[in-house]
Amino acid sequence: MLDQPTDVAACASAPLAGGLDVDAATALAQTLKALADPARLRLLSLVAGSSTGEACVCDLTGPLGLSQPTVSHHCKVLVDAGFLTREKRGVWAYYAVIPGALHTLADVLGSAAVPADGRAASTARA
Amino acid sequence: MLDQPTDVAACASAPLAGGLDVDAATALAQTLKALADPARLRLLSLVAGSSTGEACVCDLTGPLGLSQPTVSHHCKVLVDAGFLTREKRGVWAYYAVIPGALHTLADVLGSAAVPADGRAASTARA
DNA sequence: CCGAGGCATCGACAGGCGTCAATCTCCCAG
DNA sequence: CTGGGAGATTGACGCCTGTCGATGCCTCGG
After folding, report:
1. Residue A12: its chain B contacts at CB < 8 A?
2. For residue B84, which of B97, B71, B72, B94 has the smallest C-alpha distance?
3. Phi-psi map region of A116: left, alpha, beta (phi>0 left; psi -120 to 50 alpha)
4. pLDDT of residue A125 exceeding 80
5. Quick check: A1 CB within 7 A of strand C?
6. B74 in a domain, yes or no?
7. A9 in a domain, yes or no?
8. Average pLDDT, stretch A8-23?
9. How many structural domains compose chain A?
10. In a domain, B102, yes or no
11. Closest of B55, B60, B51, B64 to residue B86, by C-alpha
12. A4 with A10: CB under 8 angstroms?
């Protein structure tokens, strides 16, 4: 299978123009970047696994082994990325996972995972 | 480094011990971090959308607008994360997406995203 | 009204990561 | 055997980010 001597221009001829455009890739990367952190993954898991489905910052600092400002920062990132909701009740701020947020992301990744043969991915709108 | 929880027992009684453990979270975060980059997302998309399902580095530098070392670096990251395969044929190195890699990741995220009603993913499924 | 406590914000620091220029290695063509 | 080209590696630089201590805000209890 090494018979493309004349077609050596394969490297330069294929336009390869498909795929996500720059801003779509940037947006998806930012969403993924919000999850690409052990502390935030564990934080999400703790909140999701809570008996009431929500947790305040002081509940998370212990299990996570992080300081209160750091936990607050991670919560803000996850809220900003659309994975958590923040509800201030009295002195405490309760965070809860947004149902379907992770599933939506999983669906985007799964739909992009069908290369099949006819360039299925392309612009897989979010 | 690892501090010992002094058991402040602040506001809630729930110990919140569930969730992913540290190493699982770290591993998943590392996989996600490999995808959390616009250049790598577009690279994957370009390779997956290629007519032959594979592409060499010199095919990617143009569409990505990145230098050859940078593209090679991103390819290495994706190969290391289990999203791409590398096959050296002659002078060129052809990269192809591993079928099911993205789907597996999507499945992990999706399964963790089903809190159903109470606690869901991870441990303690009663 | 005043003290206490939870949380967000600020400033600072260290580490990681993306990027490129320069260089090296390897393989093929002649 | 020699030249050329593709790709990987190295070193350096700058930006981004995770982390913490200190501090301010805001709400509740007394």
Report:
1. 58
2. B97
3. left
4. no
5. no
6. yes
7. no
8. 63
9. 1
10. yes
11. B55
12. yes
